[in-house]
Amino acid sequence: MRTYTRTAGLEQHFSLLRSSVASFVSLSAIVLLASTTCVAATTTANKATATAAARMADQTSFGPTPALIQHIQQVGLSAYVTEQLDESAYVLPPAPPMSPAPKYCSGQYQCTTLPWYRDILTGHDQLRQRVALALSEIFTVSFDTVTPSGLPTYQNALSRNAFGNYKTLMKDISLNPAMGEFLNMAWNFKPTVGNIADENYARELMQLMSVGTCRLNIEGICQTYGGAPIPVYNENQVQALARALTGWQPVFGRDAYADMVDPMIAIEAKHDADPKALINNVTLPAGQTAEEDLDGAISAIFMDNNVAPFVSKLLIQHLVSSNPSPEYVARVATVFENDGKGVRGDMKAVIRAILLDDEARAGDTKAQPNAGHLREPILWMTGVLRGLNGVPNSSDLADFNIMSQALPNLGQVVFRPTTVFSFYSPTFALPASDTLGPEFQLETSSHVISQLSISNAIVYNQFSSSVKVDLTTDGPFGKAATSSPGALVDQLGSILLHSQMPAPMKTAIVSFITPMKKVNDQIANAAYLVITSPQYKIVN
Predict the structure, then answer these.
(1) Residue 208, burial from CB neighbour count under 10 angstroms (0-12, 13-18, 19+)
(2) What is the pTM of this model?
(3) Which of 77, 316, 362, 493 stands the most exposed, by the fewest C-beta atoms within 10 Å?
């Protein structure tokens, strides 16, 4: 783990936090935030309050900024969501050649991720990329085991389909060479007599990407019979789906220069043309082509009643709340089933329903028990840098190496999860609790310590050539700081805590920084205390 120098002014707070790391799971109690004292907020006419705007920014971007909060206040929540849904997608450039290697990076994985880091920190398609990030943790591919040159095409497919239709997304990902390589959809050829087709992708397409394992009602609640969960599919149906998906390979096949950009191509002689009995009582007839079987299989899965509540709940968890009520899930799932125009799987309608639902917006006026979610490391990093007005030193992509340097120490190397289940399970519950807290699966003691160290490095700009935050007296927080410590803390709270900083927290921070003689130290210490607080780590 990389370490950074701590200043004496932060030592007391750092030591207190370090001593409590063994009981870091107690942060789960903050998920409730039931006892926080918050600033009341209402939305009048088409305009939004500062709190409502900041919460919407947190749910739809990689972190609120003063300019973004002000813009949402002016245009209103619904109009802002419409703006973002109409925003075109940033297209990641192809992976650069590695001989000679670009000066701004080392290794093909880092070279392909830096443009994405730049976009999520500074780009305009914030909501699209937030949804694409969520989709990358549902349709999981790990570039630890997949050719890194396939990463841009894969992520572009997710961002392109983030505002499209879920059925199209399922097909595009099924034919993506990166997914083909990761879960063996590629080179899954017609089985020989006495053998079965590779079930890897077929099983995960259903279990993790569309229907789950337990029959759900519209509220996303598992149905049981005789006390046991009712399964969605059986082993014979998994094997049948695996046969339906045979006969595909990347362009150029197994060649060392296999095309990781174009969709996979069908090799009909390698496709199993026998009939297949799938879920939903769908049987694919004999003699169909690989393309016809793929389309039929995707349609059979897409039309399953589980897809709407299963996918809706996953997206709610990523964007708004780890523990959505059954009613919230049902309302969004209903939109997934029919967007009001007879279209099933319309992602724009689903995302709008998620963000503008009464349950999502309830926290605009009062902090809600059991609402919100823990920031996963990448959202914590980007939120801090954007909130503290981080700007790159230059136009060089190397400036965005701060993400590559920090995230491994926080347990999340984006696009490189260690398993098909991504970085954390959506069903992970807090210890000794029924409360879901998926991102808490990453909240280990070592990661907490790293986060404290990285926080200090950020506020004192100890990362080499990188995005820098301006916490000087001449910077955006300087005027408030020279006015009074309380004004400084209020400004930080308006950006990072939705103007809902608990009164005891403000009092503690003001008391801590007031004796400091240098205004720069007051700003840095106040910023550090906010970004390391449980109240910030939980998006509520």
Answers:
(1) buried
(2) 0.92
(3) 362
